[in-house]
Amino acid sequence: MKANWFKTATFLSIAFAGSMLACGAGDVDGFGPESDGEDYSADEAVDEAMELGEANQAIVNCSNTEGTASTMAAIAVAAAQELKRWQPTKDFQLIKVNYNDVLALSATGKARCADGKCAKTQALLDFQLDAANGKVVFPGNITLNSAGLRSRLSAKFKDQLTCEKQPSNGGTTNCPVEEHTLTFQKAEKGGCDTNFFFLATGLDGKPLKYPAQLKNKLLWADKANPYLAFQSVGDVVSIDPTYGLNEDSSTSSGTCAAACTKISTTSVVGQCCSCSGVTKKFVKSTWSATTFLCQ
């Protein structure tokens, strides 16, 4: 984090270590209770991003096995964007889909979103669909394993449920947390990809008394997830998911978006994209109206 930030606010940092020029996303309404910033341009920016990613990966473990780590990190960003908080056991639930446990938005969660369906968050949850398996691509030519994502989200959400039962003690090892609001501030290059910053305050806009507890509202994203490098230094949080997975991120290769997969609430069909160094065009995915693949 830049030194001047510490002069105006303290920060919670959740670095989702992706790799710069990433790829991935999805969206479908099938998983719900009803079915119970820096901008870059030109090739120099891409070269700079790649060099930064390579340097950081030498220091940070950016392992993204089967694409699950980066996806889970991106869901946390999307929740902060749309639901404006991390209250997983209120806003999410496990449902059965074809005998599988699937993490889905709850009615409470959907009601917090302006569109009533949380399109960005839902898009990422829909990576659990078999139709998305192997279609979403991440840095290093890693492809999404949808079954693996379902299993990991289910197991970690159950860990979250267990932790939520612990009584509040004002410490940092239990899961109760103050009511809070997360407000998006900006996005810029992160440790391995694109860092999203959110101001975290109480409902009255005042600083939280126990901001360090927020890290325990992310157990469902896996506390061992290398894309989560949580730091509590005050009232701003940052998360670093793979580029393209969250709509507000922006990186370009000349006039092309440097993303193999992109989530967007507006159509980008036919727009130029760069995936693995090859210039192509975005097409709409078969499973989602808001997920576009660079093909």
Structural write-up:
The protein is an alpha+beta fold and 295 residues long. The chain has seven helices and 15 strands. It has helices at 5-8, 42-57, 68-82, 88-91, 107-111, 119-125, 146-164, and strands spanning 11-14, 92-97, 100-105, 137-138, 142-143, 180-189, 194-202, 230-232, 236-239, 252-253, 256-257, 261-263, 272-275, 278-284, 291-294. α3 (68-82) runs antiparallel to α6 (119-125). The two termini are 35 Å apart.
- Number of structural domains: 1
Oligomer state of the chains in this structure: single chain
Please write the string of helix (H) and strand (E) elements. Answer: HEHHHEEHHEEHEEEEEEEEEE
Largest sheet: 5 strands, mixed
Which value, in Å, is the CA radius of gyration?
Answer: 18 Å
Number of helices, where a helix is a run of at least 4 consecutive DSSP H or I residues: 7
Please state roughly what percent of the residues sit in beta strands, choosing from under 5%, 5-15%, 15-25%, 25-35%, 35-45% or over 45%: 15-25%
- Widest sheet: strand ordering: 6-7-9-1-8
Query: How much helix, percentage-wise, in residues?
Result: 10-25%
Mean pLDDT, to the nearest integer, reads: 78
Estimate the global geometry from the Cα principal axes.
Answer: globular
End-to-end Cα distance: 35 Å
Helix-strand category:
alpha+beta
Based on DSSP secondary structure assignment, what is the total number of beta strands? 15
Poorly predicted ranges = 1-59
